[in-house]
Amino acid sequence: MNPSASDGSQNAAGISFNFVDATLNDVPGTVVTRECEVNGSELLWPTGATAAQIAAATAQLTALGIITR
């Protein structure tokens, strides 16, 4: 998620369970994209993300069925 982008990558679409850099090529990783509960205090947000951007991303995750507790 890149909150300052405007190409779609500003939208939260799931949660990765590890940091992966797929900038140059596809790499394996584990993500959840719907219907789960996660510990919100364990989520890491991009450096510089504002409270409003985090709230918007959390709402996007909720719309996918990813509930933060």
How do you describe this structure in short?
Helices cover 19% and strands 14% of the residues.
Note down, in words, how this protein is organized.
It is a single chain. The chain has 69 residues and is an alpha+beta fold. It has one domain. The chain contains one helix and four strands. It has one helix spanning 51-63; strands at 15-16, 31-32, 36-38, 66-68. The strands form two sheets. Strands 1-2 form a two-stranded antiparallel ribbon. Strands 3-4 form a two-stranded parallel ribbon. The longest helix is centred in the C-terminal third of the chain and has 13 residues, at 51-63. The chain starts with 14 loop residues before the first strand and ends with a strand.
Total E-strand runs: 4
Share of helix among residues? 10-25%
Provide a count of the helices.
1
Question: Strand arrangement, largest sheet?
Answer: 1-2
Average predicted local confidence, pLDDT: 95
Q: Tell me, what's the shape?
A: globular
How do the SSEs run, as a string of H and E? Answer: EEEHE
Report the radius of gyration as a whole number of Å.
12 Å
Oligomer state of the chains in this structure: single chain
Poorly predicted spans:
none
Strand content: 5-15%
